[in-house]
Design brief:
single chain; SH3 type barrels; alpha/beta; 5 domains; about 30% helix; 20 strands; about 25% strand; elongated; five-stranded antiparallel sheet
Length: about 500
């Protein structure tokens, strides 16, 4: 700060003091703002600038500033600066600009910090104190290239002079740093911003247009060569065939009603709701293909594209590949099978489930398959699932199966090479409709004959099952039962049992 300034600077310094040290009220009460009295203004003038004024002189300067309509407001208690009454940016506007700088990925940290400092210098010290605490550049993903502003200046210079530019095109490597890819010479036509990045649109000597990300450009300079005319319309290249491919096309999409806010945030309000059913809306809209595909995939469980068919085909191919990518590890398969179990189907083929305690807490399983690779023998916990309809057991001997008769909804039982000693648990069963027995060496098959409501019986590789079964009694309890023993069908004709 300069000291002992001439009094001719007093009016300007008072204006600066009010801008820096005061702020208007955010309510209707003026006193809620930060106001400086004339005495306080005088002290700051003397302390910071070495200017000594009487209170009357300060009052006259305040009146002059207020009549100039540059934002100074004089009250009976003092004065303050209100940017809304001037052409200056308000604190809210500056806040918005700072947020834009923070979110601009094409700006490096140094440039971002410099811009933010310039913006905060336009406000009072009170806002500057707030901004210092609120701005955390380290939380934002910023460019590593600090030449953006100079590159833009050189590009604009070349466009204005009608000259070509030369530069080095770079790309990021796994080390997260920019690396040279190739040298480029192009005729610059236009700078555009898209998806938070600046792009230079230019064409080669033959007029073919291309796009270059400006924050990945280094060592740029203007040449003496006149630029060439492009082949075709630049805007058509940008929005249709080239850089963005954002030409809108017609979509019909159905979404759950709760997504309407996100839909409007992404696509705006230029769409038509053509129907609504079961908490889902059918929407017709013109939108960019790329943008709609990203949105529909993100909300894939709650949104479905109905038209065009090509979009449906692409999402189906994409989803198939995604499912493959996320189903490769053992943990992937375990979690996938666990999701199925929660939805009512236990089938952990090839997976050890002996330590999955959650299985024992499930209550709504409809179908359960257990096999040797599951490394489990006590499956009695399945009895807690009162709605179980299918039970498949293969390759191991369960600790016991006495709980089967407690499953009142069980309709199918499959036993394969379990090594069980007895079928006594089946005696008198009234719920099972289909029974498969394969590779079992049970000597007494009589419990099967006393089952009621059995409709289909398959027996294979059980050694002498035909001789062990009392077919007359089985048909007596289950007149319409269909029997297959080692691929030989047995049925009753009248009072006779026939093989075919």
């Amino acid at each position: 700060m300069a000291f002992n300034e001439t009094k001719r600077m007093a009016c300007l310094r008072i204006y600066h003091i009010l801008k820096r040290h005061t702020r208007p009220s955010k309510t209707e009460k003026i006193s809620d703002g930060i106001i400086l009295t004339q005495e306080e203004i005088g002290r700051i003038l003397e302390r910071d600038f070495g200017i000594v004024l009487e209170r009357k002189a300060i009052s006259n300067y305040l009146s002059d500033l207020e009549s100039s309509e540059i934002g100074v407001v004089k009250t009976t208690k003092g004065a303050y600066f209100n940017p809304q009454l001037s052409n200056d940016l308000t604190e809210s506007e500056i806040h918005l600009l700072i947020d834009s700088v923070l979110s601009s990925r094409y700006l490096d940290k140094k440039s971002s910090r410099s811009l933010i400092e310039k913006l905060t210098n336009l406000t009072s010290k009170h806002f500057k104190s707030y901004a210092k605490n609120a701005v955390e550049l380290d939380y934002f993903d910023k460019s590593e290239n600090d030449t953006l502003f100079s590159s833009i200046q050189i590009i604009n210079e070349a466009i204005g002079k009608g000259k070509r530019v030369k530069f080095t095109q770079n790309e990021y490597g796994l080390d997260k740093l920019l690396h040279q890819v190739k040298n480029v010479e192009t005729s610059p036509q236009k700078l555009v911003i898209y998806n938070n990045h600046y792009y230079l649109i230019g064409n080669d000597d033959s007029g073919v247009l291309d796009a270059y990300q400006v924050d990945k450009i280094t060592l740029i300079k203007v040449t003496n060569q006149p630029k060439k005319r492009p082949n075709g319309d630049i805007n058509e290249f940008i929005y249709s065939n080239g850089l963005f491919s954002q030409m809108p096309i017609d979509f019909v999409i159905t979404i759950e009603n709760e997504l309407i806010g996100s839909f409007i945030d992404t696509f705006g309000k230029k769409f038509r709701v053509s129907g609504e059913k079961e908490n889902r809306a059918v929407i017709r809209i013109k939108a960019s293909y790329e943008q709609m595909m990203r949105w529909a995939i993100y909300y894939g469980d709650k949104a479905t594209i109905l038209e065009p068919q090509e979009a449906r085909n692409q999402i189906r191919r994409f989803s198939k590949q995604m499912a493959k990518n996320y189903s490769q590890s053992e943990r992937d398969m375990l979690d996938w099978r666990m999701e199925g179990a929660r939805k009512g189907r236990i089938n952990f083929h090839g997976i050890d489930i002996s330590k999955i305690s959650e299985l024992k807490t499930l209550k709504n399983v409809r179908s359960a398959t257990f096999e040797k690779s599951n490394n489990i023998t006590d499956i009695s916990f399945i009895k807690e699932n009162k709605r179980l309809e299918d039970l498949w057991i293969t390759g191991f001997k369960p600790t016991n199966l006495d709980f089967v008769n407690q499953l009142k909804e069980l309709r199918l039982l499959y036993l394969n090479d379990t090594g069980i000693d007895s079928l006594e648990f089946l005696r008198g069963n009234e719920t099972i409709r289909t029974l498969h027995i394969n590779k079992e060496r049970v000597e007494d098959l009589s419990p099967i004959c006393e089952m009621e409501n059995l409709q289909t019986l398959y027996i294979s590789e059980c050694g002498g099952a035909e001789e062990q079964l009392n077919l007359e009694k089985l048909f007596e309890n289950n007149p319409n039962v269909k029997i297959s023993i080692d691929n030989m069908h047995i049925h009753r004709k009248g009072k006779r049992v026939e093989l075919c």
